[in-house]
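can u do me a favor
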């Protein structure tokens, strides 16, 4: 950006602002998840890649299995503008153009790419009407549902900025805000901020959504599209045309102007566009409006910038979220109303603070309008209504459209954060099937997936948003660590099948390195009153080399870490937040991530480095469990300099060292009648045999950013809580790899803290049995499901429950 920045707007080839809203990790993509060859993916426009991910996420959130859509009459409409990736490839000359260049960069392929990946056989088309593209896509999707041409429609929008040329052009046109703030409706408004993003909604006829038991988040009552026609300039808005498109949408929706509570305006924050839009909206929506009930307006561009082709879908998703929460968000960067707008003569007010959604007369559900105007003159408007209460379908519902699940990704401007809701709320959880190779999709950047919204009573209108709805079977009470009892609900009628995963996995363990671990989950119905999820690890390495790879620490340690962090994210998505975290072995790295000491990216990099270092150790080591008191085991190995106690696990201790020395101690204990068990692997962790790698491990850990723990973290080195404010460093992880694991002491510390509910995460139940021997009788032993099973590297959670599948 510095190379192109110049505060002088007249400077040739320069940009007078340094700001933009950019996605992180835009180059990250898992092509094999979608059955795409990596070589082909290199020539694919990132807009295609991003859209594939978001579409999968929105189907997952809606509880719609992607494979069930194959050969269905499902359509795809994508609002998309310029493709700047082709220009980047062309910079490499003719030699950089390969056989995939055309399909990877043609805008007309982007919708077909989604249809091909999912096997959809309804209409699929890209829509380019500049800034109104994605809202026009919603309009077209509604039409194809009304006509019966499709039974399900995906309406999407995507925008990625890869070239400075567009920034230079908008800078020369004086469209950009110099300070990186989109100050819509404000006296200081001086333009917008260009941003990247992608959003998608699932649309169905309301009758179909009710019949299928889908969760409806909002209803599209009506929509309309028109054109400015001839104005004083190609990009100059036409107020009467904007007024007309709003009136047309209201007419098709059967909604009176005064019934509209809120308008999500196009609102680019320009001195020319804002006054025209506000006055057109007042003319169309001001009729019959009571003096004390003005039309509230706002624009999401103040939060996330102008997503251009994806801006319309961003505004629609904002309104759906606001309806679900019953609150109209306050408008950012609004302090002095624009003097170019006659506010005192218009029944319009900017929502300058968070405002409860106005109650409609007679229990009417909330109604809002969403506007999006393209600089080429194409205008679009959509009328949204809150979700109806659950009921049986009626004859007139076939013409009503429901917005399925909503999902988007964008990067906030000026550190503005996109609000993210839980994938699982108190009212439901969407379950969907894993994709190719059984893997789930990983999220990057800011992601937003809307959960269930509350329904009200009233008239049913034209469109809405879907997901799975669950019923509660009963309420039980569980004692919690140091807190009063809370309510735990159990699900009834859970329809998960083998090969499905919950939305809680989205965004789990995404590593920026090429060696990132990939996860998958499956869930299967076992009994009506309980839920069991069976998890396994799946990666390209495992597929190629099968079980041999898992015996190698370079693969097994990152995989275990990824599984544990993934399970932690899953349970936290279900509303379970830990009060304290304890890890065993590699599990302490996962515990550090859960506690906020390490980021997930830094954690996977550090564990990958640790696994490679452990793999360099010479073979010939051995570890064995000795089922005797820890002090007796320590006394037995004290005379052997090559031997060490690797872990104190309560009912047994683990000794480690050269195979011959370990064998001698084991035989001595066995001769005394003490049970001993060999541990597989041929390694001798926590012994002198790991000394050659400790300096390099300490150096690698020293290069990673450590932060103070956000929640209580117990150390496996001391078995006690790490002091508040202490920041771990490379020296700690060196000690952690060499000194014994004080698991038994850690469990006793949990008991002393008053923790009574313990959750164990990992691929196999191991730690639960150790706890029963290590902890006092006052602490109830935990139960492990396969999805929350233990392993030697698992973290255990005494936790605060707000909603989970069963008592653990």
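np, heres the sequence
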């Amino acid at each position: 950006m510095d190379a192109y920045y110049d505060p002088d707007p007249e400077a040739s080839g320069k940009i007078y602002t340094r700001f933009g809203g950019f996605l992180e990790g835009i180059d990250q993509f898992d092509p094999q998840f979608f059955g795409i060859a990596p070589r082909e993916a290199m020539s694919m426009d990132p807009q295609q890649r991003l859209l594939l991910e978001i579409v999968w996420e929105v189907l997952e959130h809606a509880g719609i299995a992607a494979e069930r859509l194959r050969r269905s009459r499902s359509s795809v409409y994508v609002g998309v503008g310029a493709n700047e990736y082709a220009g980047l490839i062309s910079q490499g000359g003719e030699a950089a153009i390969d056989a995939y260049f055309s399909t990877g960069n043609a805008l007309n392929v982007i919708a077909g790419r989604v249809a091909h990946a999912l096997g959809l056989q309804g209409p699929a088309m890209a829509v380019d009407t500049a800034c109104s593209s994605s809202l026009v896509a919603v309009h077209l999707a509604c039409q194809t549902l009304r006509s019966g041409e499709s039974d399900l429609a995906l309406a999407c929008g995507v925008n990625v900025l890869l070239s400075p040329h567009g920034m230079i052009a908008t800078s020369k046109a004086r469209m950009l805000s110099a300070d990186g703030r989109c100050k819509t409706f404000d006296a200081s408004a001086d333009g917008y901020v260009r941003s990247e993003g992608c959003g998608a909604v699932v649309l169905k006829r309301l009758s179909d959504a009710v019949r299928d038991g889908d969760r409806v988040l909002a209803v599209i009552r009506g929509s309309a599209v028109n054109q400015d026609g001839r104005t004083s300039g190609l990009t100059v808005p036409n107020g009467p045309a904007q007024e007309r498109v709003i009136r047309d949408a209201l007419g098709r929706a059967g909604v009176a102007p005064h019934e509209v509570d809120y308008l999500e305006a196009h609102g680019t924050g320009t001195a020319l566009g804002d006054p025209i839009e506000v006055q057109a909206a007042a003319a169309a929506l001001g009729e019959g409006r009571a003096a004390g009930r003005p039309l509230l307006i706002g624009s999401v561009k103040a939060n996330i910038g102008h997503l251009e082709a994806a801006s319309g879908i961003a505004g629609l998703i904002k309104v759906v979220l606001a309806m679900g929460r019953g609150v109209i968000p306050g408008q950012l960067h609004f302090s002095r109303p624009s003097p170019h707008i006659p506010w005192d003569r218009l029944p319009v007010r900017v929502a300058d603070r968070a405002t409860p959604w106005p109650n409609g007369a007679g229990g009417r559900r909330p109604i809002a309008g969403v506007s999006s105007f393209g600089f080429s003159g194409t205008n679009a408007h959509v009328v949204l209504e809150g979700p109806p209460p659950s009921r049986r379908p009626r004859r007139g519902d076939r013409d009503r459209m429901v917005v399925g699940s909503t999902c988007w990704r964008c990067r906030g401007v000026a550190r503005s954060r996109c609000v993210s809701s839980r994938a699982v709320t108190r009212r439901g959880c969407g379950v969907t099937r894993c994709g190719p190779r059984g893997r789930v999709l990983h999220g990057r950047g800011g992601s937003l997936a809307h959960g269930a919204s509350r329904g009200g009573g009233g008239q049913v209108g034209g469109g809405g948003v879907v997901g799975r709805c669950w019923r509660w079977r009963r309420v039980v009470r569980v004692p919690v660590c140091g807190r009063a009892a809370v309510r735990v609900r159990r699900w009834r009628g859970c329809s998960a099948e083998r090969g499905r995963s919950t939305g809680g996995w989205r965004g789990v363990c995404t590593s920026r390195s090429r060696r990132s671990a990939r996860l998958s989950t499956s869930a299967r119905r076992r009994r009506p009153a309980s839920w069991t999820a069976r998890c396994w690890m799946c990666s390209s390495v495992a597929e190629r080399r099968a079980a041999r790879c898992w015996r190698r620490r370079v693969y097994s340690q990152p995989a275990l870490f990824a599984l544990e962090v993934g399970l932690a994210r899953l349970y936290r998505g279900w509303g379970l937040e830990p009060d304290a975290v304890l890890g065993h072995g590699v599990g302490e790295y996962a515990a550090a991530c859960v506690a906020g000491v390490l980021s997930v990216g830094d954690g996977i990099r550090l564990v990958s480095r640790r696994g490679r270092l452990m793999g360099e150790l010479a073979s010939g080591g051995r570890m064995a469990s000795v089922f005797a008191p820890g002090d007796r085991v320590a006394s037995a190995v004290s005379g052997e300099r090559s031997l060490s106690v690797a872990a104190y696990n309560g009912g047994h201790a683990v000794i480690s060292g050269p195979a011959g020395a370990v064998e001698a101690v084991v035989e001595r204990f066995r001769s005394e009648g003490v049970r001993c068990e060999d541990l597989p692997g041929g390694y001798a962790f926590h012994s002198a045999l790991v000394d050659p790698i400790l300096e390099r491990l300490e150096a690698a850990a020293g290069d990673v950013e450590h932060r103070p723990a956000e929640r209580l973290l117990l150390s496996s080195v001391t078995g006690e809580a790490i002091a508040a404010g202490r920041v771990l460093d490379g020296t700690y992880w060196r000690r952690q790899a060499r000194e014994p694991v004080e698991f038994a002491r850690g469990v006793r510390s949990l008991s002393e803290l008053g923790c009574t509910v313990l959750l164990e995460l990992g691929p196999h139940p191991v730690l639960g049995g150790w706890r029963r021997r290590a902890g006092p009788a006052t602490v109830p032993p935990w139960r492990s499901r396969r999805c929350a099973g233990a392993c030697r590297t698992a973290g255990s959670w005494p936790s605060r429950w707000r909603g989970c599948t069963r008592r653990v």
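Confidence is low (pLDDT under 50) at residues 411-544, 777-808. hope that helps!!
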